[in-house]
Design goal:
It is built from 15 helices and no strands. It is mainly α. The protein has 2 domains: 60 residues, Single alpha-helices involved in coiled-coils or other helix-helix interfaces; 132 residues, Alpha Horseshoe (Serine Threonine Protein Phosphatase 5, Tetratricopeptide repeat). The chain is elongated and about 90 Å long.
């Protein structure tokens, strides 16, 4: 406990020195004063109690520690990964792909992350992890990984496609459209990119106010307030044949979208 008080005193003394420097704004000074009061109360120390002072100030201790600490070299600073690291990264990527196939997306993220640690210059690892993030609903994480993949390989069409999908999931349809277009520039025969582009463009149009009231000038509010129309609609929806057709259309619609997004979520 005595060492804790010495540390708390050093921190408070440092804050006091910052107050005395005159380099802080009035708001910053007020914040520091509150912080000092909180620390003094929490640890039961006072800046006036010089028995808690140590031989070196906090900045001096910090400067000495940073000089003595050896810098750890990372892969990016020490050169390219070794052959063993590259092979292990590929194995981890394969493990991640296997987890994606069984829909264990959290485990897939872990494997891809380990592969990235060994080889952070492989765009595929980031792009695959983006697919896993999207499956988990972490679209912001997917966007970040697609940005990294594009930074490594600006001609990687799949990264642009997955970026478009993540942005569309965040309702950023305008940005999604631009990425889908770029994906099509790089892979013009990809039907999935074409379909996704059309959907994003349609979503953009739906988000814009229509000059003719939305349905070709039809007064939707008037129709919904018309008792005769609502009675007809209710009878129609209760018709067993209509319900059967609606069910078939729903099943077809869901299958279409599963097939359409298959290539976007396909991993390498």
């Amino acid at each position: 406990m005595a060492e804790t008080k010495h540390l708390a005193f050093s921190i408070i003394q440092f804050l006091h020195d910052q107050l005395s420097s005159g380099s802080l704004s009035s708001d910053a000074q007020e914040s520091l004063e509150v912080a000092i009061q909180c620390l003094e109360t929490a640890f039961g120390v006072s800046v006036e109690d010089q028995s808690l002072a140590v031989s070196q100030s906090l900045p001096e201790i910090f400067a000495s520690a940073t000089k003595q600490t050896p810098q750890v070299k990372t892969n990016s600073s020490s050169g390219s990964p070794s052959e063993e690291q590259l092979a292990e990264a590929e194995r981890l990527k394969t493990d991640g792909n296997d987890q994606m196939k069984v829909e264990n997306f959290s485990a897939a993220v872990e494997f891809y992350s380990k592969a990235i640690q060994l080889n952070p210059q492989n765009a595929v690892y980031y792009c695959n992890r983006a697919a896993a993030y999207s499956k988990l609903g972490n679209y912001a994480g997917a966007v970040q990984d697609c940005e990294r993949a594009i930074g490594i390989d600006p001609n990687y069409s799949k990264a642009y496609g997955r970026m478009g999908l993540a942005l569309a999931s965040l309702n950023k349809y305008s940005e999604a459209v631009s990425y889908y277009k770029k994906a099509l520039e790089l892979d013009p025969d990809n039907d999935t990119y074409k379909a996704n582009l059309q959907i994003a463009e349609q979503k953009m149009k739906e988000g814009q106010p229509s000059p003719v009231g939305g349905l070709g000038g039809v007064d939707l509010a008037g129709l919904l307030s018309n008792p005769g129309f609502m009675n007809m609609a209710s009878n129609l929806m209760n018709n067993p044949q209509v319900q059967q057709i609606a069910g078939l259309l729903q099943d077809s619609f869901e299958k279409h979208f599963r097939d359409m997004f298959l290539n976007v979520t396909h991993i390498e």
